[in-house]
Amino acid sequence: MRYTESIAASAQALRAALPLMSRQRAALHPVTYAVWYEHVTAMNGALSRELMSLTQDGATLDEPQTWALYRRHIAELDEQMAATLAQDVGDVLRGVSDCTDQAGQQVQHYAHALQDWERALRSAAPGQHVAVLAAALQGTRDMRHAVDSLMNRLEASRQEVATLRQEVHRARSEALLDPLTGLSNRRGFDRALADCLRSPEAGTPTAPCLLLGDLDDFAALRERLGQQRLDEALRQVASTVRSIAQSHHLAARLEDDEFALLIPGAGLHEAYTLAEQLRHGVAQLQADAERRLSLSLGVTQLGGGETAREFLGRADQALRASRAQGRNRVTVLAADERFAA
Q1: What are residue 298's DSSP bridge partners?
Q2: What residue ranges carry the coiled-coil annotation (predicted)?
Q3: pLDDT higher than threshold 60 for residue 80
Q4: Where are the beta strands (DSSP E) in 175-238?
């Protein structure tokens, strides 16, 4: 579930996207709209950065550029990878087909030969039986060789198909990962969130919990560090998130400096403990020689019958409360709580 905006919010995004789309050289179609929709809603930071770079100084996007943005930042499986895999599968199937055709022809030839040898044995003079049997034996050897070749080819094809399956899995997995940090990206997070919403434990003390956190004073940090050192700082934060996450948790980078941790089957106390561990871990990281990093976090738990928008909204509300109360802290909101800003 990628988009969770309300009708009013999506209508506002449409009004913002259309003027921008109409100024481009690319045709107005769903792919173009997806690119500009994700840009104007600020839900895809990597896409927005590349888009702004391409359109600086009044430049406009053409069709290939628009499709390239879509493939890199939105499409779940790159079309070129899909085409390559389709070609590989086709090659495997053609190889198997050719091999089975050849084996089928040899089987048919062998069947006719058996009939000929049977007739020859019946009509052979006493001294000719050995020659007929020798021919039958050689024909049987040839047939066995053909069957062995077919079995070897089928085994090789089985291994090729297994390799292709791994490539598909890898491509799909990479499409769900943030390239900078190796954590899940927004797409991967949305999939895991959709699974959480179906949890039978929603609304109970062990319902899934969500941590949202972002770096304090990120704009100043970007200006202070520059992009290369900032990327390294983000990788360090991601490593800290990964270090506290357990195998059944989902750690994600949602935007530039926004990180999330989905925790199924946990209570709020456990989620709060993890959030404090994360906050303390990030506080040990050096932004530069003079300053350490810090992280503000919001924690909440899934309520019964909640939508993704409600669940995320309350976590974001808790995060904003941490910022409002001085940053570098954790705020917890239970499913039935709200923060009065």
Answers
A1: 212, 331
A2: 147-174
A3: no
A4: 209-215
Q: Residue 229: which of 293, 296, 282, 176 has the closest Cα?
A: 293
Q: Which fold has domain 79-175?
A: Methane Monooxygenase Hydroxylase; Chain G, domain 1 (1.20.58)
Q: What is the pLDDT of residues 298-333, one digit of tens each?
A: 999 999 888 888 999 999 999 999 999 999 999 999
Of 298, 184, 174, the residue nearest 238 (C-alpha): 184
186-333: which CATH topology?
Alpha-Beta Plaits (3.30.70)
**208: number of CA atoms within 13 Å, CB side?**
27
What are the distances in angstroms from CA 180 to CA 9, 86, 183, 252? 29, 29, 8, 11
pTM, entire model? 0.55
Q: Of 91 and 261, which is predicted with more confidence?
A: 261
The ranges assigned to domains in the chain are: 7-73, 79-175, 186-333
